[in-house]
Amino acid sequence: MLRTHTCGELRLDHVNQEVTLAGWVQRVRNKGGLIWVDLRDRYGLTQLIFEEGSSEKSLLDKAAQLGREFVVSATGTVIERTAKNEKMATGLIEIKVSKLEVLNAAKVPPFIIEDETDGGDELRMKYRYLDLRRGVVREKLQLRHRMMQETRKYMDAQDFIEVETPVLIKSTPEGARDFVVPSRTNPGEFYALPQSPQTFKQLLMVSGFDRYFQIVKCFRDEDLRADRQPEFTQIDCEMAFVTQEDILNTFEGLIKHLFSSVKGIDLGHVDHMTFADAMKYYGNDKPDIRFDMKFVELNELAKGKDFAIFDNAELVVGICAKGAAGYTRKQIDELTEWVKRPQIGAKGMIYLRYNADGSLKSSVDKFYSPEDLQAWADAFGAEPGDLMLVLSGDANMARKQLSELRLKMGEELGLRDRNTYKPLWVLDFPLLEWDEETKRFHAMHHPFTSPKAEDIPLLETDPGAVRANAYDLVINGVEVGGGSIRIHDRATQQLMFTHLGFSDEEAQKQFGFLMEAFEYGAPPHGGIAFGFDRICAIFGGSDSIRDYIAFPKNNSGRDVMIDSPSTIAQEQLEELSIRVSLEQR
Amino acid sequence: MLRTHTCGELRLDHVNQEVTLAGWVQRVRNKGGLIWVDLRDRYGLTQLIFEEGSSEKSLLDKAAQLGREFVVSATGTVIERTAKNEKMATGLIEIKVSKLEVLNAAKVPPFIIEDETDGGDELRMKYRYLDLRRGVVREKLQLRHRMMQETRKYMDAQDFIEVETPVLIKSTPEGARDFVVPSRTNPGEFYALPQSPQTFKQLLMVSGFDRYFQIVKCFRDEDLRADRQPEFTQIDCEMAFVTQEDILNTFEGLIKHLFSSVKGIDLGHVDHMTFADAMKYYGNDKPDIRFDMKFVELNELAKGKDFAIFDNAELVVGICAKGAAGYTRKQIDELTEWVKRPQIGAKGMIYLRYNADGSLKSSVDKFYSPEDLQAWADAFGAEPGDLMLVLSGDANMARKQLSELRLKMGEELGLRDRNTYKPLWVLDFPLLEWDEETKRFHAMHHPFTSPKAEDIPLLETDPGAVRANAYDLVINGVEVGGGSIRIHDRATQQLMFTHLGFSDEEAQKQFGFLMEAFEYGAPPHGGIAFGFDRICAIFGGSDSIRDYIAFPKNNSGRDVMIDSPSTIAQEQLEELSIRVSLEQR
Question: For FRET with B89, which of A25, A223, A431, B132 sits at 20 to 30 Å CA-CA?
């Protein structure tokens, strides 16, 4: 080894030992006859000292010439510092250097390599290898590493087998677009990269591997939104001979294990909520339940009082912000403007303030008597000091808008603490959702999800009302995982494909192998997949997944560091039997 | 859970307990009033019993209708067997069934699902999900799982960080062909799938993650030979601030850990051998050292005695097969025919038999005196009872041919026991190798491998003689891993590209980001990658990697189960700005 210790491990115990450290020059302070160098590696910082008189002149000169990010090895004696730094793990000691070797010089980096940097997004992406040197970024990848190891530890202990499923599979463009890979040896044919290992993990259940997991890259060729990546990582899991309850318990266990082992947090009880309730009470299939502020529907109380807006609305619905009666008129106007922005799309907002003195003040006082408003307040369970905010209109729209408002109020009132974690299982998702564009039903989860047995007759009469054996795990308003009990017989699977608008030929071409597998003894099974990048971001207290990915792509799907994608040679295209044809677009 | 226990866990302790098992029907024996069913799951087999009189008639009828591979759940009481089967883990008990539920029926499988099967290769590949039910195949994937977990356990304990590098990267067609992925959002441009995460792991070293590993899928678009797969798995590793010796020690540690934790074998000392010695003594850069039988060069003894074949040969070289003097003339003739096959390509073979009585008999008695032959025998260190086999010709060819003969003799003499493991580090590989086809030097390992400092001047005068800081780990004659100390400065890297025939522009376009990274403080570093599929096969005692891969492709790169690759829709092609152009070929 080119070092005897790391830059994070020396303490007073090591005083008088001769050591060799190696790392990067973080900072040089040169006071003429006295030079301090902070040497950095993955494990920490250690101060080196070079002193006129006790160090040789040539050594001092060498130290004086060190620049930021030079790579050096330094040999010397551990000494006790006179000016101690209790905030640094190695702050009680320093190294009196007797030998210094420059292992590699460094150009001046394009941005400051410290927790607070002056580098913009583009620059840090281009020099991602320098950005990764910053402690705050490095810690995110270290967290990710820890999460991976602990996930595997738990799954292995629960008898799950990690199986690598293929990356070169077959294009089945249900859902998002596939990335495809031209086959050289099968001209005119293409592999596809998996959007998930769904069919393979189901085949593993048919094979009898009753507990499977994998931490696996998946691919979606989507138009990238702010926080999506074309390649992302899933914790992918499947179990046979289980009920939905068994799956929830098993993976509640995983999440609890991760919280306790990685963050030292006891997650406690994980609530369950139906999709229907989530929509009714939070207007959202991934409610943030760190705070309550449930929706209260006011149709009965608010309609029929000649207030046309409410009378014409399908739904009048509001929230009660506890203790927010102090909001000024200006603040309330700002909220009204906020919900009227096109991103939210409300037509307006009604407020009802429950003053500390017990009186009620609203923006619709002329339509409603104090008794009417008191009835509202009672419906909200409001107390003096609370502020009620009410939206109305088309039921789905109003709920969606109110959900946004609720989250904003939660934020403003400090109810969404990043260090508080509230997990929630959302259950009984609809099987199908209507797609306006294609005018047909799509599978809400995926075509392999089983309908609830008692709802199957509805497939013919009211497909949108059919509930699925499908569930999501939500933490703090973020969906971190989702899954379902699968279909495991050919007839039901074929029925599903028919309802999804597949012709028998299409279904056979794309998923014939799976339906055939179901005929050779497929056990009841189900599973779940977690968005690993997302879980890491939540554990790290971040909104964005990008920093939890070592080498992410930008919003145009480019890796600006290696400059990819790029053109390829004509011979490569010819070997692959394809041509670029830009004019088609 | 749809079961209370697995089919592998019930013992005499459980007698009288009521249990529910679920699994597949392995076998039904129907003796009229008495039916036995062997129920199978991943964990084992348990015998179910249905008896007239004590079981209801309807239950007996149901049991009688079970077919092979039906999926059932059975509830009943654990009872002690009268006819015990000590060979089965659950052979002391059986389940007297009170309730039987068919969870799924099964068609008759296309081949027998037992360790010994009647299914041919193609059929088992098409129904891979059924093949995976066979115990012998399942165990291979379970071994692979264990190997993965233990690899991570070791690496994590050694402070290595697992980092996922991107799968959508950039085409750099040095070495094998890349698989490419057309980018929809960047028309006319392509990603490539990684042949290895080489440049990324080096960038991680530049980032200061001084110990990286990953168990990662890699891709090579090669014409598939018998035991190659287009996608394969590597244990990919890199370390900074280390010497070659540190790397050898660290990964010797990994291999020892795997042998002890997975197979309970103490691997003992790992030998080192230079590439030059491996070629000289074994004619092979991956010698099987489970047995000795080193090459002995006979030029001095064999030439100049008017035996034209030897006189005209660049090299006369042989092996001594201990105790093989009993080989008959017929057996020796067969060996001669064997080395003359086109796959080996020798012109002939000379033998020298050291008879038990001390006399010597050879096929060249008329050219060599008994004293001459005795001198040969002495050079071989032969004793009465040994058989010496000698080849000659062009030195490289003769060594290669003799290496094959040595391995065959080792096999025939039972010296290559699958349960004996002899690891070996082969060191000091050449940096470059001459490619006849392109008439230029290629990097033997890859272009990032550092030359030995003392050999750098030879780059100008005798490039083929430059040795690299490169090493392979060989077990039982199979290369399981290889790596090198890398170049970590721009000047040397550029020099290498020049010697490999890159123009400055090409080098910059393909690897500019890496060379630039070397200017911002790159530490000395090196690493290794292990062929994970191969290591699993060796641990499992198999020659072929295919069974250690859950869903392998066939030799034409097809997945015959899902029927991939396949054609894709015209709209997909259009979105990707490509056309299929079969006529080009």
Answer: B132
